[in-house]
Amino acid sequence: MCGIIGIISKQPISSMVLEALKLLEYRGYDSAGIATLVDGDIERRRAEGKLVNLEKRVNAEPLSGTIGIGHTRWATHGAPTERNAHPHATEQVAIVHNGIIENFAELRAELEAEGIKFQSDTDTETVAQLVSRNIRTGDAPIEAVRKVFDRLRGAFALAFLFKGEDDLLIAARRGSPLAIGYGEGEMFLGSDAIALAPFTDKITYLEDGDWAVLTRDSVTFYDENNAQVSRIVQQSAGAAYVVNKGNYKHFMEKEIYEQPEVISRTLAHYLDFASSSVREDVTNIDWSQINRLAISACGTAYYAATIGKYWLERYARLPVEIDIASEFRYREMPLSKDTLALFVSQSGETADTLASLRYCRAQGLPIAAVVNVRESTIAREADIVLPTLAGPEIGVASTKAFTCQLSVLAALALSAAKAKGTITPQKEQQLVQELASLSGYINQALKLAPKVEAICRDLVNVKHALYLGRGTSFPLAMEGALKLKEISYIHAEGYAAGELKHGPIALIDETMPVIVIAPYDRLYEKTVSNMQEVAARGGRIILITDAEGAKHANVHAVATLTMPEVPEFISPLVYALPIQMLAYYTAVFMGTDIDQPRNLAKSVTVE
Ligand code: F6R
């Protein structure tokens, strides 16, 4: 999603802005731009596509100036062209924006009726034009901006730069995240701590509804009622998030290979491996008050949560409602006070997940969140934070965050089961030991990479693929299909294996690869029957199973990936690996932009 940076310094800032924009690239974008004040006038450089295009533009026509704003744009309103790239500017003001101005059409009509000519198709330009109109009619910049907030509906983070104001930036947050950074005689604003990491580790997160006035030596905060407020300065962990690819070709590859380590680290936070038990105090959830869960999440996090549902219901005997966050918030589900509202999010900024959290807050429910970014809005607004210790995930396609989410959810299910007495101490010990053995199994799964690569050479030529699984392998099938779609652009669907004959079987012919996730467990035989239905219609089966499964398959598979034999409880964590590798190597062969696939954003801060 869009990334914002703003800098007031004593030295030229255009290269600093570009450096920060590079750190925001991971969020996903399709154009970029920068504006500075040159002799008091606003000057812009903007470019379609990747940052290197903007860099070329700035190198060809350098931008001086010690104050400025920059932006990476993920198109919502208007095509990803230079004309629609931010900053949007009039003579008086330049702005960058993350979010959506929902009432932009009516605002634009109002301004156009007054004869104002728009230069772009964006919702953002209406904000620039409104502020500009106020300045032209006599308002000072701060007043001009303040008056505009009341006119805007929707979610936004905004930064403003003004003609002739060499010591003033304004930042505003409603919905979308924004942080202020402190330097020596310099001030910064940015979408996240990562963007600010090269310049400062002292930051303040704007609260929702806040706006801030920045000069080189000061920042003044105002809340949504325009009352001056103080906000705490905190030490940022942003620097830890500035990572490189090391010897790997892509961040996604690096993140796949980091999984044995980050899963162990995450599990060790919740489990005591020495005594093979769940740590008592770590989740801080009073399970005696909880009789059910309502979980919301989006995308990969939703699939992780769906696997978590199987565990929570099976081991802790807790009924779980699970929803895609964008549906949950509008479906008016009856919620009782004995429901724990649980949100799962890597970024902790996903707009729909955050909106669902706030909906549950308004209903008075206790709120827990499984999040990777500790300083995120979701982490800050939850009562109980259940961290995934995956470290920064830069590849847009989630891999290690997914398996760390699974790790936390597995530990959470055991913690609830222990507190509710639905598992015996022996069972707790057994299941904790199974989780403790995960990194070994995952390392074994990683060794299948050459075999996976060989399969992917053929997948490159297909247009569609089906993934099938039962039990916890069903959400994994959906996750596998999502991964393949995201980075290779091959159309794929994940189905419950038993659902095949209720429709999708019509798609099976000799061109259709069917990836079957079937560990040799209590559901295996049922899945084999479904495989036979596929084989009978000439489908090309790629079977992911273990040695026993391979022995009992009894159908012709064009390829079999033989996994280590793993206990059923932890199998989704281990089988996630070949699923991720299948998508990764297919995309490598296709030559797509793996870490920043087209149209996708890492942090989805609009609804
Ligand atoms: C897919 C992927 C997305 C995210 C989804 C939610 O690989 O990464 O589907 O899982 O956008 O994002 P978070 O977890 O940040 O809330």
UniProtKB/TrEMBL annotation:
Q: Where is the SIS domain?
A: 278-422, 455-597
Q: Which Gene3D superfamilies match?
A: Glucose-6-phosphate isomerase like protein, domain 1 (3.40.50.10490), Glutamine Phosphoribosylpyrophosphate, subunit 1, domain 1 (3.60.20.10)
Record's InterPro entries? GATase_2_dom (IPR017932), GFAT (IPR005855), GFAT_N (IPR047084), GlmS/AgaS_SIS (IPR035466), GlmS/FrlB_SIS (IPR035490), Ntn_hydrolases_N (IPR029055), SIS_dom (IPR001347), SIS_dom_sf (IPR046348)
Q: What keywords are annotated for this sequence in UniProt?
A: Aminotransferase, Cytoplasm, Glutamine amidotransferase, Repeat, Transferase
What Pfam families does the annotation carry? GATase_6 (PF13522), SIS (PF01380)
Instruction: Please give one Gene Ontology molecular function term for this protein.
Output: glutamine-fructose-6-phosphate transaminase (isomerizing) activity
Signal peptide per UniProt: none
Which reaction is this enzyme known to catalyze? D-fructose 6-phosphate + L-glutamine = D-glucosamine 6-phosphate + L-glutamate
- Where's it mainly located? cytoplasm
Name where it's found: Cytoplasm
Q: Which SUPFAM superfamilies match?
A: N-terminal nucleophile aminohydrolases (Ntn hydrolases), SIS domain
What Enzyme Commission number(s) appear in the record?
Answer: 2.6.1.16
Q: Where do the TM regions start and end?
A: none
Q: List, for all copies, the residue spans of the domain called Glutamine amidotransferase type-2.
A: 2-217
Q: Which residues form the active site?
A: 2, 602
The subunit structure is: Homodimer.
What is the role of this chain?
Answer: Catalyzes the first step in hexosamine metabolism, converting fructose-6P into glucosamine-6P using glutamine as a nitrogen source.
The name this protein goes by in its record:
Glutamine--fructose-6-phosphate aminotransferase [isomerizing]
Q: What organism is this sequence from?
A: Pseudochrobactrum kiredjianiae
